[in-house]
Amino acid sequence: MTRAPILFRVDATPRVGWEPLCRSLVLAAALQRRRRPAHFLAQLDPTLLTQVVKARRGNEWLEADAPAGTPEDLEETIQEIRRLNPAAVIVDGPEVKEDYLAALRATGVVVISMDNTAAASFPSHLVVNPLLGPTRDAYELQRGTQILLGARYVLIRPEIRRVRPVRAQEPAQPFRGAGCPWG
Question: Which of 7, 10, 59, 103 is least buried, going by the fewest C-beta atoms within 10 A?
Fold first, then answer.
């Protein structure tokens, strides 16, 4: 079995938000349990987030010069793919378009897209929707693209997962919604 690294292309800035980085960190932690090193090619703002990425052993941070999805970023990402020879590239960015993903796929690496908006066509090998919506019908996928979505594939952050055992010990309460005609 190969232990090639996984390359994450994700940004965490006030403009795009920090949720994509959180999702990527959860996925990187799961992959590292299988001894896969993770490299994050990312623009991080505030720069304190670099410590969050590097806090876990096996994570490396590479500073991206341009926002994800731009032509300058595509050139830099392809350069890192050639340098690292990763097993896969996981792209999580709301502004990444079809031509960007197609160019990454043309390098021969497995391309995985994290998406919860279904706003683009996906030439990726795999599309993962880490939330509960939208449905399969909303996605435009190219031939050969697989999709993982629904309750089975939701990514749950560790801080939320740790609360679960506490809730499991509480007695079940009857569901009552405000204004429900039957409750």
Answer: 103
